[in-house]
Write the structure tokens for this entry.
Amino acid sequence: MSYLKTLAKETVIYGGSSILARALQYVLLTPYLTRKLVNLDYGRHAIYYALAAVLIILFTFRFETAFFRYGHKKDQLERSFSTASIFLLVLSILYALVLWWNSPSIASLFTLEEDARYVRWFALIIAADALAALPFARLRLENRPLRFALIKTISMLINIAGVVVLLELWPQLHFWPSLMELYNPDIILDYVFLANLAASVITLLLLSPYFLKTSWVFDFTLWRRMMRYSWPLLIVGLAGTINLVFDSFFLSWFLPGTEEENIAETGVYKACMRIAILMNLISQAYNYAAEPFFFKQIEMADAREKYAKTAQAFAWVGCFAILAIGLNLDIIKYLIDDSKWGALYLVPYMLLAYFFLGMYYNFAVWYKVTDRTIYGAIIASAGALLTLAGHRWLIPIFGASGAVLTTLSCFLSLVTLTYWWGQKYYPIPYNIRRMGHYLLSALLLFFLARVFEQTDPPMPVLWLFRLTLLVVYVWVWIRLEGAGPALRSAIQQVLKRK
């Protein structure tokens, strides 16, 4: 089971950097911005970051995954990196120019025409992030998680520091009146985006040694192979992003209020959903480490058994996360301003949706390692169509609840279809029954806690009860899985090292 230990370690480091960065964002930026920005500006903030999530797929063309596929062999690493880098450089410049020139019309489509400058900020931010994607992918492929984690963390710290400097320190420069007078309190959202741009550019500079030492050779034949491999993944990525972020757009378009009221309501909804994203971070952390791991196991005789075991391990961790976050939602909610608590009741359902998304990442391995990415495009497109239809018809009727119901239904459908199709073309012996037991037991304990809360117990008793449920969940499954001896051995090794 050494491969599970390796994967777990890299997941902790790769994901740890993402989770640490996001944790800093949750602990510092999210509470700050939900209090600093009015609902209308926070809605704009959410919508433009949702738009950025769509655009980054177009800017990268999913070439980081194609790089994993064709660069995992040492003799192809440099040529694959150079070819992909040249392509992404040209593509990023072209896309950034298109966004810049068409910023007023794009802004009027998603928020207000006067927000065109936000589109221009993101044209630069996304271009920098797209160029950084391949060096980050190379760090993952070369098993250099510590450097990956360090750069990711530095980037987030620069972002946070930039926000603090621009929004708090700049207005207080009384010893420099001429500079202080340049500060405009009416455009603080611009300053937030400017801090992000600074972080993205500095991150790209930190990764620049990879570009400086590359041979800059463009292999047209290899590029064509990478294009054939990645264009279905582009559809997968776009469809997946539709499933994740299009709720922001549809809420702003189809809620019954005025345009500005809908944007403000979208800000409230997205602020609450940032709590549920903690579950998605676990999925992303796992995916960062698992994707290169999957490709390295292609030629192994026991590859399918390893894929099954890693999926089962993820399922257990994901179910524990659902339980832990759901039980402590009344504490975690203080990360956002109380003016934005209106959609907290939807967070448990979105946690479940993100769990199914993580399982989809696991089950999707079959079409990536067999080069049947076209099947992934078909599956993801079906999910995107379900998302678009659900948001269009349910949001006008049920509001934010319709958005969450659509997302949950979509991810559950993706998991089901991907598993069913994968077992036909590349059977993997997943222990579906055991993974189902993980989920059902976590949900049962969650509902048990909700029932206990209705008795209105003293707060210390309630916290003790919740902690007991978490301990029971972990202890029971460690016993049933027979993981106790291995866990004790790992603890003893850690103590000996100390």
